[in-house]
Each structure stands twice: as C-alpha cells, then as structure tokens.
TrEMBL record:
This is BLUF domain-containing protein. Residues 2-93 form the BLUF domain. It comes from Dyadobacter sandarakinus. InterPro entries: Acylphosphatase-like_dom_sf, BLUF_domain. PROSITE patterns: BLUF. It comes from the Bacteria.
Length: 138
C-alpha cells in the first residue's frame, strides 16, 4: 500500500517555461531522495499534481507545496492509501495539456472543477495515469 494525494491548484499568473522547469527539477531532486513519485500536469495556469509514497513523507512535502506562493487555491481531491504506485517510474513526471485535454479530463472528472464532488475512490488516479501514459514525451 502507498499513500497518495491528488490536488488541483491555480498558478499565480501564467507560469513561464523556466519557472515550470525549475519547479519540476527541484521536485525531482527532493522526491528522489524521499522515495516520492508522481506527476504534474499543467495547462494555462491550471495545475494537477499527484504525490505518492510513505504517508508522513508525502504529507510533509504536501505541506511545503501548500505554502508555496507560486500557486493558490490548492484543493485536495484525493488523499488516502492505494494498493500500488501509479507513477513508480517518475520522481515527478511532467506534461503540459492543451485546453482540450484539460476539458476532457474535467468532463471525465467533475471534481477538478467542483471540489464538492471529491472522488474518494481513487478513480482520479487511473484517469490521470492514463492521460499521462498516452501523452508524456519524457
Ligand atoms: C505546483 C508545485 C508543485 C511542487 N511540487 C513539489 C514536489 O513534488 N516536491 C518538492 O519537493 N517540491 C515541490 N514543489 C516546491 C515546494 O513548494 C518547495 O519550494 C520546495 O520543496 C522547497 O525545497 P527545498 O526546501 O529543498 O528548497 C512544488 C511547487 C509548486 C508550486
């Protein structure tokens, strides 16, 4: 079993490529040391991130992410134990999304727009995993 958090947030203004790269490279460095894996998807100021690993370590990292002023409206959609890692190969996978992709993900998963419809079953994870496996380039 592994602990997993999925959240959405809005960047404080559109993030430039360099800012995103610096967030991702720092995340990869820190996460590898802490045996955290996951993915970050970005589209025009919308962020979706999955973190997975030991509960304490993931919570600790999430608390740091929460305090980061580069994004706001951090909304947790899923937090709990799941049977396996979805992103075991990635200390932090990264992909941009087109608005169309984002629209499809939102249509399939209303909680992205509406936190009251949180998906506590982990369906979010498989949707995000499928999206990432089909779209990532690195
Ligand atoms: C959208 C977003 C996602 C982030 N994801 C991670 C992450 O997965 N792991 C991580 O260590 N830091 C992540 N950060 C950075 C943290 O907020 C924080 O700046 C960093 O962990 C500080 O690391 P340091 O204490 O080693 O300097 C993220 C920041 C943002 C804005």
């Amino acid at each position: 079993m592994v602990y997993s958090i999925v959240y959405v947030s809005s960047s404080s203004g559109l993030l430039a490529d360099e800012e995103l790269e610096s967030i991702i490279s720092k995340s990869r460095l820190n996460n590898s040391e802490k045996d955290i894996t996951g993915v970050l998807l970005y589209c025009n100021g919308n962020i979706i991130q999955v973190l997975e690993g030991a509960e304490e370590t993931v919570m600790d990292t999430f608390r740091r992410i929460l305090r980061d002023h580069r994004h706001t409206q951090v909304t947790r959609l899923f937090a709990g134990m799941v049977p396996d890692r979805s992103f075991q190969k990635w200390s932090m996978g990264y992909s941009t999304m087109t608005s169309k992709d984002m629209g499809e993900l939102k249509a399939a998963f209303p909680a992205i727009d509406n936190p009251h419809k949180r998906d506590l079953t982990g369906k979010t994870l498989s949707l995000i995993k499928n999206f990432y496996i089909n779209n990532h380039r690195n």
